Task: structure prediction
Amino acid sequence: MNTHDIRARYLAFCKKNGHALMPSASLRPENDPTTLFTSSGMQPLVPYLMGQKHSLGTRLANSQRCFRAEDIDDVGDNRHTTFFEMLGNWSLGDYFKKEQLPWIFHFLVDEVGLDPSRLYVTCFSGDDTMDIPRDEESAAIWKGLFATKGIDAPIVDIGTEEDGARNGMRNGRIFYYTAAKNWWSRAGVPEDMPTGEIGGPDSEIFYDFGTPHDSKYGQQCHPNCDCGRFMEIGNSVFIEYIKNDDGTFARLSQRNVDFGGGLERIAAASIDTPDIFALDIFAPMIAALEKESGKKYTDASYVEAFRVIADHVRGSVFMIADGIMPSNKEQGYILRKLLRRAVLYSDRLGITRGRLGMLAEYSVRAYEDVFDDVRKKREDIVSVISEEEKKFRRALTKGLKEFEKIVQRTEKEISGHDAFILFTTYGFPYELTEELAKERGLTIHRKDFEKEFKEHQKLSQSASEQKFKGGLADHSAITTAFHTATHLMLAGLRKELGSHVHQAGSNITAERTRFDFTHQEKVPRDVLDRVERYVNDVIAADAKVIVEEIDKDVARADESIEGSFWHKYPERVTVYTVRSDDGTVWSRELCGGPHVTHTGEIARYGRFAITKEKSSSAGVRRVKAVFVPVQE
Result:
């Protein structure tokens, strides 16, 4: 089977076992300002894992498009990619361990065809300080599953990664690891979880490629060793705990399953290669790179460049398909960084003329039969990537001129400050400046560069933490109130400006709401005042917020229901209607929640006030609103 076959078979397998299939969410999270990208399949499902009812029921599955910016610098080895697909299935208070583990075992062994003797699994060893027990149930289930294939599966308490590197596997097949490896929460290990955070033990599945152990990663090999012998291909998380105010843990009202399996990693295991870039989805682009460069992917001197270009171009294709454009901030900054790195690595292969657009075509072709948005946006994708490459090559030319000026005033060593200016102003990575300096017999004061770079990172991180503080994903009461008020504001804008107004994006924190909507002209202050008054009137009316589940086609045909991003919603959608007892409908909109139950709940936070209105982009306006305390 190729990669697309595995995806299709997984979804069919889940459907056969009673799961409703969902479309992939956008790479750019909606209503979640805590993160730049959707990096896992569960990310859009947090409200439902915490008890909110999902319109599709309690068994869900999909193949989620994901992006992890933190992996950019790791791309170049045989397993890291920035963009990937996560096969996922979820139980929202429905089935649990005794159903989940046999299902995923049989899928991998009987559907994909993996050799069960090459599979190894890990379980949670427990945490006495948190009074969370060892996951003996999962270990016992795994032992029974291996027995069905005639495989003895000894259970070993391996401890930490350091313990594994020191003591090895001791002939085990099922391993207990501490919370650092076999506990999941958005905040990490149990002691780092804030009050109200959910989490639970997990059970990971590893494929053994049988490659020799590299001792630089530790004296002994074990499933979580980074030497390359083992690759994690799936993880079943059992979300059943919530952290109390006093640091203890309580059981959630529902026990959940959150499974995530890397599609590309499962596909690599299916053809018994540890190299993700040997898959069918990369083959055409790799072949094109070989033809353009005259170099071979199998040449160890160039394999890193091949992998970086292939990954970064594919990641860029999917970013642009989801509406992200190159810029100097947020997601657009990451996209620009990908493309600039791809240009630099193209130069390493000797491809110095603009070819990234051509390479993007190969990535589009690899996915066009699976993802309609990639196929429909082909021309835009190729155009954006080609233009960005042209811009960066012009910047490189200017940067080389600046580099020559630096060389002329330098005797032996380029200052860290000069290297930093080349980095920030002209996009020169340190390695490029270092390589150019070496050709001239010069060195660089690296410590000074790293000092400035760390300061730059610290400032960027602080700005990011401030910008993304809180957010709808925390489901705090005030954030939920802002969310409902934002819907009311959209209804007010449509009432004042017309039915052409639709949501174009939102960013909601516990401090404010920032809302983008379609409209060509600046909105006068008197109109904003009327919209503000509309929202506060609804809050004062203490209207009910009524939740309905409707077929998407029916909802879309109903002109009274406002909605954006229809293509991203499943076939059954949730509609929230704000209605007074006298029958007045203030707002009726497609949404995934959460919301208050009565608008009067919002009043405790003060008066809703629109503080700013400006242009966001062509044909899109942006407003910011806050709650202003009411003076007694």
Observations:
- The radius of gyration is 26 Å.
- The CA atoms of residues 305 and 372 lie 30 Å apart.
